[in-house]
Amino acid sequence: MEAETAEQPVRAEAEAQLQEIQMLKDKLEAAENRYLRLQADFDNFKRRTRLDQEAGEKYRAQKLVTDLLPVLDNFGRALEIEADNEQTKSVLQGMDMVYRSLIDALKKEGVEPIEAVGKEFDPHQHHAVMQGDDAAYGSNIVIEEFQKGYLLKDRVIRPSMVKVNQ
Amino acid sequence: MEAETAEQPVRAEAEAQLQEIQMLKDKLEAAENRYLRLQADFDNFKRRTRLDQEAGEKYRAQKLVTDLLPVLDNFGRALEIEADNEQTKSVLQGMDMVYRSLIDALKKEGVEPIEAVGKEFDPHQHHAVMQGDDAAYGSNIVIEEFQKGYLLKDRVIRPSMVKVNQ
């Protein structure tokens, strides 16, 4: 018992050390878990950022393209006039070249007209404003287009306004 | 000495525990520093991403705008014809409206023509292709514009081609 009494403070110290070791191990584990969670957050953020950037890049011109569609519509209509003299004919030819260069510039950015007449009606691309009954076409086929629709890459910027066969 | 001998293994254990405590403290400090570094990296990445997105957003339409400038040039030139009859006059009026709506759509995106004639020559905005000697203007003043230049917000997309007074 003599020796045991002498060991008493040593044992108490050892006990306290064991507790500190456990506390440090817990803290270390917590710190490592916190690091792993932050690493996972960071990876997620990078991935989302990359996807956002890709989408932003892909559709970057959407606002300008949307604003240009009425210009295209009016330009197309202005070209439909029937020339009754040589000068008007020549002006219209020149303007038609400008019109086509405008369409080409938009095409380079990924803008394409939506195919409509003769195609099966697609509610994602076509907006049906009338129903028709034309024996020459099958059921649910677009038979007339009132306003051209446009895609920017795979995104519908404006649906076509169409007449669909019953 | 009896007691000391009995304490020997306990002391050795305590020593080992102290070493483990020090090792754990070092590891914990290292883990916390690693966390702080990662946190700083993450913050930097977020800040850079936000700046990139702002710049990307600001100049998003640059490519399409660049492709539209020759269309604008040709459109402007095609409108300069002198009508010799009523139909041509009416067609040109209609086309002038289309032209102005094209310029308006570009303006909404932040595209503005660069001011040139009468302004002091600015090598960042003007490209001097000729020198003039016109007593009506001061020195280093733009006295003629051969091709219009354009800004997208604060960025020169195409400088004006000009004649500068000596």
From TrEMBL, chains A, B:
<keyword id="KW-0346">Stress response</keyword>
<keyword id="KW-0143">Chaperone</keyword>
<protein>
    <recommendedName>
        <fullName>Protein GrpE</fullName>
    </recommendedName>
</protein>
<comment type="function">
    <text>Participates actively in the response to hyperosmotic and heat shock by preventing the aggregation of stress-denatured proteins, in association with DnaK and GrpE. It is the nucleotide exchange factor for DnaK and may function as a thermosensor. Unfolded proteins bind initially to DnaJ; upon interaction with the DnaJ-bound protein, DnaK hydrolyzes its bound ATP, resulting in the formation of a stable complex. GrpE releases ADP from DnaK; ATP binding to DnaK triggers the release of the substrate protein, thus completing the reaction cycle.</text>
</comment>
<dbReference type="GO" id="GO:0006457">
    <property type="term" value="P:protein folding"/>
</dbReference>
<dbReference type="GO" id="GO:0000774">
    <property type="term" value="F:adenyl-nucleotide exchange factor activity"/>
</dbReference>
<dbReference type="Pfam" id="PF01025">
    <property type="entry name" value="GrpE"/>
</dbReference>
<feature type="coiled-coil region">
    <location>
        <begin position="11"/>
        <end position="48"/>
    </location>
</feature>
<dbReference type="InterPro" id="IPR013805">
    <property type="entry name" value="GrpE_CC"/>
</dbReference>
<dbReference type="GO" id="GO:0005737">
    <property type="term" value="C:cytoplasm"/>
</dbReference>
<keyword id="KW-0175">Coiled coil</keyword>
<keyword id="KW-0963">Cytoplasm</keyword>
<dbReference type="GO" id="GO:0042803">
    <property type="term" value="F:protein homodimerization activity"/>
</dbReference>
<comment type="similarity">
    <text>Belongs to the GrpE family.</text>
</comment>
<dbReference type="GO" id="GO:0051082">
    <property type="term" value="F:unfolded protein binding"/>
</dbReference>
<dbReference type="GO" id="GO:0051087">
    <property type="term" value="F:protein-folding chaperone binding"/>
</dbReference>
<dbReference type="InterPro" id="IPR009012">
    <property type="entry name" value="GrpE_head"/>
</dbReference>
<comment type="subunit">
    <text>Homodimer.</text>
</comment>
<dbReference type="InterPro" id="IPR000740">
    <property type="entry name" value="GrpE"/>
</dbReference>
